[in-house]
Amino acid sequence: MRAAFLLATVVAAGAAAAHAAPDLSARGPEIHVTRAAGPITIDGDLADPGWRGAARVDTWFETRPGDNVPPKVKSVGYVTYDDRYFYAGFHFYDPDPSRIRAPYADHDDISEAIDYGGVILDTRNDGRTAVLFLATPRGVEYDSVSNDATGNEDASPDFYWDAAGRITSDGWVLEIRIPFSSLRYTGSGPQSWGIMLFRNYPREFRYQFFSMPLPRGSSCFVCHANPLTGLDGLPSAEHLVVAPYLSAKQEALPRGDLGTPLANGPTDLTGGVDVKWLPTPDSAVDATINPDFSQVESDVAQISANERFALLYPEKRPFFLEGNELFATPIQAVYTRAITSPRWGARATGKSGDTAYTVLAADDRGGGSAIIPGPDASSFADQDFASRVAVARVRRDLGASFVSFLATDREIAGGGSNRVFGPDFQWRPNGADTVTGQILFSTSRTPNRPDLAAEWDGRSLSGGAADVWWSHSTRHFDASAEVKAFADGFRADDGFVPQVGFHETYAELGYSWLPTGFFSRVRVFALTDPMWADGGRLRSLLAAGVATEGRWNSFAKLWVYADRWRVAVPGVAPASAPMIPQTQVRFQLQATPSQAISGISFEGWFGEQIDFANARPGRGATLKLALSSRTTDHLALRLDAERRWIDVRPDGGGPRQRLLTAQVERLKATWMFNARSYARLIGQYERTDSDPALFRAAVDAHSGSLTGSALLAYKLNWQSVLFLGYGDERTIDAAGELRRSARQFFLKASYAMQW
Fold first, then answer.
1. CATH no. for residue 90?
2. pLDDT tens figures, 262-272
3. CA distance 439 to 423
4. Is it the case that residue 494 has pLDDT exceeding 90?
5. 3-state secondary structure at position 575
6. d(CA 617, CA 24)
7. Is residue 729 part of a domain?
């Protein structure tokens, strides 16, 4: 019944959206661009002949912390184009150029504490997605995709473009050149795009300046772009990029037990190629053979002790990032890191009129772990078999809204499959409300491998899942509500769905004040998030608190979190499992006070803590610290640290004893020689100390590792790179001592050729 109701909601929303139109009145002033009057050299100097007669934009708005007021400092933007490139130039005035924050950094490594600016382009003019091309006075580049459908900004995709900056006596100058081959647009005739010019000005506050106003409380961002007209005769010829790579790796492992001397293994030489073909400006075909999916930087470790569900890690592999925003749906049915080791892959992405699509296919060798979901916890199983993967999504824009359809398929070698399909939608009836939803159905036959997982015995599974979200936002008041329902038999082997067999209802209310002074925003809020599963209530949650924004780009949040969870007990029916409460005080603090301390984040909780492994109450805390520092223009330091501890009463009485202490520390130091080359050192220590006598099941008293890596890197662009690296790993043994367990040397070279 619930799925039928949600399906009716999808149909009704789609019908309503068909009559909706983008709210063009919400857009900024029109910018009319003309062809460049002459050549332009990207060198941080606006004296080139091509800038004469370029469209000039000198009306800007301070959108944060001010509410669309005149900016504190003057900014002037210029836009033009020629047969191959789109150009944006800027003169950012500053009354005290000595305060400009402009350290060297790697591509995409730009924080809110740094001066930067650039252009944001909605080349498909759909008011939903846009590509950000931003750079600093040192020419450090940042590119990303902003997606109004999800409210997220994804910096994973990379594009070919150029930028150059220069600090002057009255501020700084920036030039940007974007090849039309890096953009997706329709046809070669007259174009209507959306455009935003942007400047980040971090001083006592983080000031944000745009070329158009951004109404407070608006439910969208890209929809407010300035209309860009005048583009005509754009290139429509084919474009081809071929990027071969070669890598070499040598690994040394212990000759015997952990801690014995290491023995060098053979040198592993491998190569492959990535190909991108653009048959038209609004479509792309990507293919890869034996792709290099190794990462030159490891994921930041997360504490998994006393966590019941799988932890999410971001995708970083280039092949999967073209059109990645089309895989962003309310239910994460596509998680490309589930494709662990493909032999080959192919992908087509594009847009025709109001219809956008993406199709992905890959041959996965397997390896890694697969998630086995459940209502109370998820588990893992080794994925030691190959499979074929196919994913497709098509989206139809209907005015300011859209409807879409997703299908995924995984065919397992030796028997087994998982197929997921269903619609999703987003409806924007006005500027304050957004309704987003998705319904999926899955049919599965598990592999016949009960040695790896109990449910992998060849059984058939099927079920549905639904997620509908409503949000309302005005200048002062905001509200949101969400309903989720996941059947026991629902599986998404190509996605990230660690919990099934439950339904959930979430609601939140908030009210904001916008004062002047140290705080620019104060918000009070309250929320509830009950959850049910077979056997009754699975969770009860009530929370309330206050959040602030203020000087030094600070954000602070303090709230009380009153929660109750049903905790599974072996041999006990779900209806009889205990509901254990945990009341906590939670906090979060973020700020970017200066270049020397370019970012600080401290968050955590303390109070009651459920011991899920042993189904009993406890007390403890989790603390997380992230600190970034740029003490010079060349040196960047980043510290991440997390610590968790839990104390319990073994038999429900007596003094508390320490159940476990878990910690992660990671220090990353990067010396930038210039914007293209750097040296980097990373050290990461993970450790969990447990008291086996306090656990029902056998656990190690000590576990963890110490890893270190060194890297020399040169990047001509994101696909033309040279890496030389070294890695060392120590593992904590049963006695709690670190023993050397691995050593690696590696070399990688790739070069992108374009036609």
1. 2.60.40.1190
2. 999 999 898 99
3. 6
4. yes
5. helix
6. 55
7. no
Lowest mean pLDDT among 180-194, 400-414, 508-522, 656-670: 180-194
CA 414 to chain centre: 34
pTM attached to this predicted model: 0.82
Number of neighbours of residue 623 by Cβ within 10 angstroms? 16
| Local confidence band at 159 (pLDDT 50, 70, 90 cut-offs) | confident
Q: Could you tell me the residue range of the domain that residue 92 belongs to?
A: 33-229
Measured from the Cβ of residue 749, the count of other Cβ atoms closer than 10 Å reads: 16
Give per-residue burial for 322-361: e unless 16+ CB within 10 Å, then b.
bbbbbbbbbbebbbbbbbeebeebbbbbbbeeeebbbbbb
Which uninterrupted H or E stretch holds 315?
A: none
CA 37, 38, 42, 43 torsion: positive or negative? negative
Could you report the per-residue pLDDT of 61-101, keeping only the tens digit for each? 999 888 899 999 999 999 999 999 999 999 999 999 999 99
Number of domains in the chain: 1
Is residue 684 situated within a structural domain?
Answer: no
735: left (phi over 0), alpha (psi -120 to 50) or beta: alpha
pLDDT tens string 642-658:
999 999 998 777 899 99
Strand-pair partners of 465: 440, 486
Cα torsion angle, 58, 64, 67, 71, sign: negative
Q: Please write down the HEC assignment for all residues of 178-220.
A: EEHHHCCCCCCCCCCEEEEEEEEEECCCEEEEECCCCCCCCCC
Residue 299 to residue 640: CA distance in whole angstroms: 12
3-state secondary structure 440-480: EEEEEECCECCCCCCCCECCEEEEEEEEEEEEEECCCEEEE
Q: How many helices (H) and strands (E) does the chain have?
A: 1, 43
Q: Is residue 411 part of a domain?
A: no
- Look at residue 56 and tell me if it is in a domain: yes
pLDDT per residue as tens digits for the range 384-420: 899 999 999 999 988 778 999 999 999 999 999 999 9
